[in-house]
Amino acid sequence: MKKVISIGEALIDFIPNQKGCSLKEVLGFERVAGGAPANVSAVVSKLGGKSNFISKLGKDAFGDYIIDTLNDVNVDTSYVLRTNKANTGLAFVSLKEDGNRDFSFYRNPSADMLLEEGEIKQQWFNDCHTLHFCSVDLIECPMKYAHKKAIEYAKNNNSIISFDPNVRLPLWESEKDCKDAILEFLPLANIIKISDEELEFITGETDIEKAKEFLFKGDVKLVLFTKGKDGAEAITKTKTVKIDGNVVDAIDTTGAGDSFIGSFLFSLLNDNVGIDDLENLDENTLRKYLLFSNYYAGYSTTKKGAIASYATLNEINDYIKNL
Question: What is the pTM of this model?
Answer without folding.
Answer: 0.95
